[in-house]
Amino acid sequence: MPEYLISFNDEWVPEHTEEQIGTKSAAVRPVIDEMIAEGVLIFSNGGLDRSTVVCSAESGEGGPIVTDGPYVETKEHLGGFAVVDVPDDDTARYWAGRLATALEWPQEVHRFRGPGRGRY
Fold first, then answer.
1. Which intervals hold domain YCII-related (predicted)?
2. Beta bridge pairs of residue 41
């Protein structure tokens, strides 16, 4: 089955208090539990933002160059994601819709390329 990345950009999410984040976490938990029960969830994490960036790595003359923080200055940061293994685009859309509804912020869906088309 194809694998999909369902993600949201941290900039799409308004500022939340810790209490509001707790409420969102409780609201999305049943959806995550259903994804687990259906056997479609590979991995999920919603705790990313600009404060979680550890470093950036790029190729340099003589080897890698590793620097603290993000590579480029940008407003856009991955905020969270779920990787799912589902049969088709429609099913990926279904789960993205469920997550968007529970969290009340947009989700984006990407299909990973299949074997032989860029997958390592």
1. 25-98
2. 84
CA nearest to 16, candidates 76, 79, 82, 70: 79
| More confident position, 116 or 49 | 49
Tally of CB atoms within 10 A around 8: 22
Residue 113 corresponds to which tokens in the numbers above? 């390329």
pLDDT above 80 (res 72) = no
DSSP-derived secondary structure letter, 50: G
CA atoms within 13 A on the CB side of 100: 15
Neighbours of 46 (CB within 10 A): 19
Does 3 or 1 have the greater pLDDT score? Answer: 3
Q: pLDDT value at position 104?
A: 87
Cβ-count burial 16-32 (b if 16+ within 10 Å, e if not): eeeeeeeebeeebeebb
Domains, the chain, in order of start with CATH, read 3-111 (3.30.70.1060)
Beta-carbon contacts of residue 60 (< 8 Å; ≥ 6 apart):
none
